[in-house]
Amino acid sequence: MKTQIEIVNITWEGPLSPDGVEKHTSSGVYQYYGDHHVYGSDVLLYIGQATNLAERISGHRFDKWCDRNIQIYFGPVEQDMLDRVEKLLICASAPARNGQHVKEPLDETLDESLLNLLILNWGAYRGLLPEVSGYRFTDHLYKL
Questions:
Q1: Helix (H, G, I), strand (E, B) or coil at 109
Q2: Strands, E, within the chain: which ranges?
Q3: How far apart are CA 33 and CA 46, in angstroms?
Q4: Among residues 20, 79, 91, 100, which one has the fewest Cβ atoms lying within 10 Å of its Cβ?
Q5: Which of helix, strand or coil describes residue 89?
Q6: Cα–Cα separations (whole angstroms), residue 65 to 39, 51, 61
Q7: Do 70 and 61 contact (CB within 8 A), yes or no?
Q8: Quick one: pLDDT at residue 110?
Q9: How far apart (Å, rounded) are the C-alpha atoms in residues 83 and 50?
């Protein structure tokens, strides 16, 4: 039996300043970089999802965490793919400000749709891996 792999191509745009996201009203995932008091300068701080980036970013309080020199990168993604893409990117990248999906591999029994997902990052994807697969970042390999 052949496995169907679902491929998501993300072409990242950026850098955008927190004030420069107003033209991005489509759905997608975003990553932001900045200076972190422990991890240093210009590091991946957060990966999130948005059905409207401009609205989502206006709700962030960047000063709350004392992060400085914030740059935002945006990758358009179909709305029905947002949850899965965000989970997989967080698990693979472990950003400094994301808590969930970082501690251990994703449990593919809870979300079997992640196992056959392949994300290809293009453009300004910065510190992300160029390819991220559910096959690699779910826990099925740890059960062998």
A1: coil
A2: 6-16, 28-36, 40-50, 68-76, 117-123, 131-133
A3: 7
A4: 100
A5: helix
A6: 13, 24, 8
A7: no
A8: 56
A9: 10
CB within 8 A of 79, min separation 6: which ones? 27, 51
Give the chain's length.
Answer: 144
Residue 4 in tokens: 């169907």
Determine the average pLDDT of the residues in 112-119. 86
CA–CA gap between residue 5 and residue 135 (Å, rounded): 10
Query: 119: which strand partners?
Result: 8, 132
> In sequence order, what DSSP letters do the residues of 50-119 get, joined into one string?
ESSHHHHHHT--GGGGT-EEEEEEEEE--GGGHHHHHHHHHHHH--TT--TTTSS-B-TTT-GGGTTEEE
Structure confidence by residue, pLDDT tens digits, 25-81: 889 999 989 888 888 889 999 999 999 888 887 766 655 555 678 889 999 999 999
Residue 144, both tokens:
């062998």
Average pLDDT, the chain: 83
Global pTM value: 0.85
- Angle subtended at Cα 10 by Cα 96 and Cα 24, rounded to the nearest 5 degrees: 80
pLDDT at residue 77, as a whole number? 96
